[in-house]
Batch of 2 targets.
Target 1
Amino acid sequence: MKEKLGLDNGILGPSLLDLAGQVNTTLSQINRIFPAQGFGFLMSIILSSIITKTSCLHLYITLILSIGAIINILIPFSTSLGWMTGLFLLQGCTKGLLDTFVYTLCLRLFPGEHNWQMLCIPIAEAFSAFLIPFVVKPFQSQMFIKSGANITSLSNCTTDTCYVTASRIAYPYMFTAIILFPAICAFAYYSFHEKCSNKLEEEYDRMSDSQTCITEVILFSAISFIHWLHKKQNIIAEDESS
C-alpha cells in the first residue's frame, strides 16, 4: 500500500512531457500541477488529524487506495490542463491521507518502542519510486531522425527531418492502479470484519463543532481552487484561439 506513494512520486518526472503533449500545453504551463499536488497534500494533513481519531482505519485505507487508483487511471486521459491539475490536487490529497493512515495503523499494530516494521514503510516507498521510471521508459514518446535527413543531432530537428512516436504513457499509469488491487481487496476484507459502524457513530458524535467547521472550509477551498484552475484554463484557451 505504501508503494503507491513511491509510484506516484517516481512516475511523474519521466511522464511529464507526455502528459503535457496529452493536453496540448507547454512544459512551463503544466508545471502548475506541482503546487496543486502540494496543496492537496497540505489539505490532507489537516483532514487526517480529524479522521485518524476514528477506529476504522482499514475502511479509510480501502477508500483512499481505491480513489487513488481511479485517479491514476484518469490522469493520462485528461482532455484539458485544468482537469489534469484538479486530478493531481486530489492525488496529493490521497497521498497525504494514505501516508498518515499507514503510519497510524503501524503504530496501533506494533506499539512497541523498537518498531522495526515502521522502517519498512519508507524503504518500500523509496524502492518503488526507484523502479517505476524503468517501467515508464518503454512507453514514452521518442523522437527519431528520418532516414535520409541531413542532420546528426536531435536538437536540429524539424517536422521534415524528424518524427515522434505515439505516446503510450497511459499504460504505466494503469499499471500503478492495477498493482493496488491486492491491497484494496485485503483492506476491504479486514474492514468488513472490523464491524466498526457503531464505532464510527460514536467517534463522529465526539467530534467538536470546530473540527466540522475546519472540514467544511477545506472542502470549500478545494472546490474553489479547482473552479479557479478550470476558469483560468478557459481563458488561456480563448487567448490561444484568438
Target 2
Amino acid sequence: MLAKGTATVQMLGDLRLLRMQRGLAATVEVAIPPCGFAASVLARDLGLPLERIEAVLVNHQGFRLDHCIRSGDRVAFVPKEHLEKPPHTGPPIPLNANSP
C-alpha cells in the first residue's frame, strides 16, 4: 500500500471568512492519496460551497475545479467575490471625510 502525501490548502477572500466564522483554519495541510483527487472533492471535504468558488490556484497557476490535486501541491481556492459585489456606479467617492 502506498503512503498518502499532503498538500497545503489556503482559502482566500470570502472563503477564508467562511472558514473562520466556523472556527476553522483558513490554511490547512490535507492528506492526498497517491492517485490524487479533483479540487472539487477537496473543496467539498473542506466544507466550501462549490458555487462560491471561481477557480483553484495550484502551484500559482489557475485551474477549474476538475483539476487533479496531487501530493506536494500548494492549493488556494479563489472566491467569486467580484460577482457578488457590483461595481460602484454613483458619483466619485471622496478620498477623505473632509472632502465635499
